[in-house]
Predict the structure.
Amino acid sequence: MTTTATGVRGGSWLTEDVDPQTVFTPERLSEEHRLIAQTANEFIEGEVQPAIERLEQKDWALARKLVRRCGELGLLGADVPEALGGVGLDKVSAVIVGEAMGRSASFATTFGAQTGLAITPLLCFGTDEQQQKYLPGLVSGEMVGAYALSESASGSDALGARTRATPQTDGSYLLTGEKMWITNGGFADLFIVFAKVDGEHFTAFLVERSFPGVSTGKEEHKMGLHGSSTTPLILQEARVPAANVLGDIGKGHKVAFNVLNYGRFKLAAMCSGGARLAIAEAARYASDRRQFGQPLTTFGAIRHKLAEMAIRQYAVESMLYRTAGLIDSMLQCSHESSLVLASLEEFAIEASILKVAGSEMIDFVLDENVQIHGGNGFVRDYPAERHYRDARVNRIFEGTNEINRLLIPGMLAKRAVKGTLPIIAAARQLQDELLTPGFAETLADRPLEAERRTVAAMKKTALMVLGTAMQTYGANLGDQQEVLITTADIVTDVYAAESVVLRALGDGAGGSDRSVHAAAAQTFVNDAAGRVEIAARSALAGMVEGDTLRTMLAALRRIMKVTPVNTVALRRTVADAIAARKGYPFA
Ligand SMILES: Cc1cc2nc3c(=O)[nH]c(=O)nc-3n(C[C@H](O)[C@H](O)[C@H](O)COP(=O)(O)OP(=O)(O)OC[C@H]3O[C@@H](n4cnc5c(N)ncnc54)[C@H](O)[C@@H]3O)c2cc1C
């Protein structure tokens, strides 16, 4: 069984109990973390938000200037080693910066392409010469980067790319093809381009805009993110020197997919920051706006919405910081590229979970933000309308949510078969347990005890569904997309529910806030348990039938015997905290 440097493995939470003291939460941020948050938030509020109209008019000179300012403030290189011009901080710092950027979605996209999609592949796969040549410029913001994977006929099916790289006698390559939807396309200096050598070997190349044969097309007319450049990249026998092959020939998939793992994780940070901002907007509007002689915040229907927005954000934020802490504990402050790469692979399941959960959470929050604003939410005078349009693409790029959902159980099953996660043994043990007459959980008198037991029950349910799927379909599991997608939702709810409970139990969630943390955790777990039970029933009924199905459903009923809590009262506790702070009540 492979373990990471500190013994923490991606996905291991599905089969193991986790001690709250080992989990990183936003309440545990250091002084250094808080300072970087302050710098990033001041930059966004002071320099980016006032510039949004000009960015939406496609003032790319201004976009470049803002990227440069990010470099000066150390935000582009937060987690880049100092030797390469970065600040050498941890992944928690990268989350903090991502959250701040998420408060201005168009610029966040520009920033995300620069850091996640251009700097990361160079850090993980660049030779010393390539790193020395390109990283200082990218990290200082003097150079703008972009990532060119998608084509008109190959988006999700990225390896189906048609762009061709033809080797020349002098060792260089001629690249021909057209890439689509390239973020920063209008003003990037450097493109990470994926092409097939001899039409066969998928490979990454570092392509400068100034190389002969490189040009970009017109800006796309998008639903949102009008302040972010998106263009095609046209390569007409573009000559790329041999020294600009990134990674190995034929190993472009390694570059492409690992970069996306990190991009997904950072995208979730941006969703988290954007959601927090929108919750504050909704809370302020609801407290200022009066109908029937009263502020909107006095109406239960609106209080329910505000509480639910905050609770869903609490879940994503809890998973996000927990995952950042896991990656940091694996890296142990190292920036060594092979270890960084290993950490991206190790926590790929969590990255996909975060991408799906973060992008769907923010769409929910922004939809409710529009609703709380009423007619004002539908007009451009208020930011709610722009946020709503800007966020929709989060479910599409960095791998669509369907593709990411398919990856989650797919990766778990692969690790189970390889033996790196003890899923098969845990599923077998569960089967034996369920056949034992009088099987019952022992009860202890601990805080959030009922929720801990519910999370344990949800884990068992996830194992039952995943184990049954693996047993039923074996190597053909990949063809059963409906089952995989349902399993992904169950697994996501398990990670989220456990993360909120561990956070609410943590030392940081103390003082007068403890009851609000507990209320959010209890509500989330209660609702997640309901979702998991329904999803498990339909997944099992799709896989087995007759007596086997009846036995499994009986076992499921026994496992998921969860007493509902009073979520009306709990949401009121959260809503009161939102009203008191006129904003997101945690962190
Ligand atoms: C604003 C914006 C910025 C972007 N920036 C970049 C960038 O910087 N660099 C870059 O390379 N790309 C970028 N993209 C492209 C983006 O990554 C793709 O749009 C995305 O990967 C989806 O590909 P597609 O659009 O071809 O959709 P398709 O792959 O055609 O998918 C259409 C639908 O079918 C589903 N689907 C596809 N295959 C399967 C399958 N096997 N099983 C089940 N369902 C499936 C999808 O989930 C989706 O719902 C950007 C896109 C946008 C809109």
Residues 113, 147-150, 155-156, 181-183, 222, 225, 230, 393, 396-397, 400, 402-403, 481 surround flavin-adenine dinucleotide (CB under 6 Å). The chain has 18 helices and ten strands. The beta strands are 145-148, 164-167, 173-183, 190-197, 201-208, 214-216, 230-240, 245-246, 290-291, 294-295. The radius of gyration is 24 Å.
